[in-house]
Amino acid sequence: MEYKLIKLEKIQDFINALIASGKQVLAPKQKKEKVFFSLVGSFDEIAMDYIQTAFSAKSAVFPKCEELYTFEKNGKDTILHNPPAPENDTIVFGMRPCDGAAFDYLTTFFLKENPDYHFKMRYDKTIFVGLTCSSGDEFCFCTSVGISPSDTRGSDLMLTKTENGYYMEIITEKGKKLVEQFSNFFEQTEQIDKTKYTANIQKRFDSSALKEKISGAFNWERWEETSLPCFGCGTCAFSCPTCTCFDIQDEANLVGGARYRIWDTCALGIFTKHASGHNPREKQSERWRNRILHKFLYTDEQFVTLSCVGCGRCIRNCPAELSIIEQVNAIMEG
Amino acid sequence: MENMYLPYRMYIEKITEEAPLVRTYRLKFKDPADEEKFSFKAGQFGEYSIFGEGESTFCIASSPTRKGYIECTFRVAGRVTKALANCEEGDEIGFRGPYGNTFPIDDWKGKNLLFIAGGIGLPPLRCVIWNCLDLRENYRDVTILYGARSVQDLVYKHELEEWNNRPDVNLFTTVDPGGETPDWKGKVGFVPTILKEISPSSENTIAAVCGPPIMIKLTLPVLFELGFKEENIFTTLENRMKCGIGKCGHCAVGPYYVCKDGPVITYKELKELPQEY
Predict the structure, then answer these.
(1) How much is the pLDDT for A302?
(2) How confident is the prediction for chain A on average, in pLDDT?
(3) Measuring CA to CA, how many Å separate A182 from each of A16, A18, A28, B24?
(4) ipTM > 0.85 for the complex
């Protein structure tokens, strides 16, 4: 692996040069009391010292709503068009390692079997620049699910803030190309031990012990009691970096329109409701159970990976103050 | 890379009114190149669409032995099926598929076949029934038990007649008590009751069951009583579905996706799944 250093005073020039070159820079930006990934016009807009964005970086590649294709009506025929691929690269800058690890999962999910055209066209044009966490909060639990706050998984380049500036690990070919293109902002450096610049995130549960316990948890008698506050708004799923479910909807007029996919969630009753009215997951507790088991059991069976990266967003954002950490610990207690 | 959401463009060649709000469409490819590359097997399904309204999931109800077209049978229930029902012959329909697994009819060679269907559960079995009848020499006795709420709710009325007249098919039709008409010649009673009455042998026999959840629930104990083994009872699952290719998440039952791991499943496999279908 190669290592570079960006001096503190150079980081601003680097970002502004990226923007000037026509690349879209998606970076954490403060809006009122929260931080969101937003397109930025200059380095000044970026919040470099944030703990967690309200929503994950996944929308860079899997947007909330996107065209699957468009169609035009031509008499009794319909002409179909693929959505245009993005012209310019997008740089996801300052992404937390948990979001990076989420991309590790998302690429497996979207590209391994029945590869997803739309995900791939965006993913190929996106470069992920991770940023080591120097601090966390009581909702962070990445270390409980096997991820570290300086994890490089899913990042093309990884930054760690040190006394001298930003230490950069070049992880992928994609990252290397970008570094070569903007080489005048970087200095050569040696590998360093990132530990002292990395937040200490406390382990909140033991995922291997959980694995033992959760395989038989479908019939656990406390699902109803522990999920009682949940009113099924879906905020947890919409802010989750690994949730992938979507709905497909059309919008059209007399001359044409588009078929879209839009984020959806198993928290909603209609998600599984049949046309006949039959609903396999009738109760909110069954939907909550599905979410928890999907994260900690089902994807482990499918892809040999948990689909929770410990970002803590579902806890921070839950209007009913439900906590996935408390839920998991309750399952462990039995 | 291919955009898997782009449908084939097809047109309705023929419309058959089956029962109140139930129609069968015979669809043909608009582009001969699509027809050339398209193939499917019994048990698979697809996403049928009206551009501007959306997509709906139905099985392919015709047999792969009948080339050049596919058929679907649907009941009007929501926005898309309503729009589909407003179509006329010649109108355009989008179709994505075939998706899902298939009935293992090659493994069934030399066996007796028992098909049990209720109401709108016959279309998914009709595909495999015709597939087996078109390869009739491969199978021994073929028995079909079909029930519906009332006489007018029976689908494929002409084909029921045809099966009834074939010496190599044992057909039993039944309607729920009160659903019969004065000239009804079939049986009266619920499917599980009639199954018990006709008591087909489980010896060297495969059973394929499709119908409303309550019918399946009550039919299974009768099959076990008759000595059917769990691995010889097949059904085809149905769940709300959007993408058909294991991505949208709607049809997932635990780690099992009805759209790509199913829809065809044996009772033995079914009972391993979380009870959420």
Answers:
(1) 86
(2) 96
(3) 11, 8, 22, 62
(4) yes
